[in-house]
Backbone:
């Protein structure tokens, strides 16, 4: 059985579909998780889909992925712009890392233009709405197939 792809979501993404739908769209995180699970099945992959509002919990999942995960797709939400600790945890992970943002962070406030996670990510998707998760998953399957 191949190791699962970890799909990790940071703070406030539990409110997806409710919070600023003009920026983040109407789909809920549960719907995103369902879409990812069915695409993963098509791709012959499995996923572990998590969300937390707590930085330490996200770091614990990244550390767990060191032994249990094949790759990490991460939308660190606001921690993207602040968390050296998440960057350090990702740097201790050997597999592919893809960074996803639902909105185009480069078109938004200047404080969103900086991403610590991008210093580690093998690829970044921003501004494709929640489709970004599916695109990242397809790319992850390709990267894992090349290893
Ligand atoms: C986000 C962009 C971040 O700047 C923001 O803090 C989020 C979500 C996105 O998916 O567009 O919470 O990561």
Residues:
């Amino acid at each position: 059985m191949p190791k699962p792809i970890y799909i990790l979501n940071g703070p406030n993404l539990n409110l997806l579909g409710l919070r600023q739908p003009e920026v983040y769209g109407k789909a809920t995180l549960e719907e995103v998780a369902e879409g990812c699970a069915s695409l993963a099945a098509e791709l012959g992959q499995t996923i572990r889909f998590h969300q937390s509002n707590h930085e330490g919990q996200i770091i614990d999942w990244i550390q767990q992925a060191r032994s249990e995960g094949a790759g990490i797709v991460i939308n660190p939400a606001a921690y993207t712009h602040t968390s050296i600790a998440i960057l350090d945890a990702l740097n201790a992970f050997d597999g592919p890392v893809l960074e996803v943002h639902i909105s185009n962070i480069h078109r938004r406030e200047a404080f969103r233009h900086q991403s610590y996670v991008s210093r580690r990510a093998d690829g970044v998707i921003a501004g494709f709405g929640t489709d970004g998760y599916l695109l990242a998953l397809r790319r992850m399957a390709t990267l894992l197939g090349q290893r």
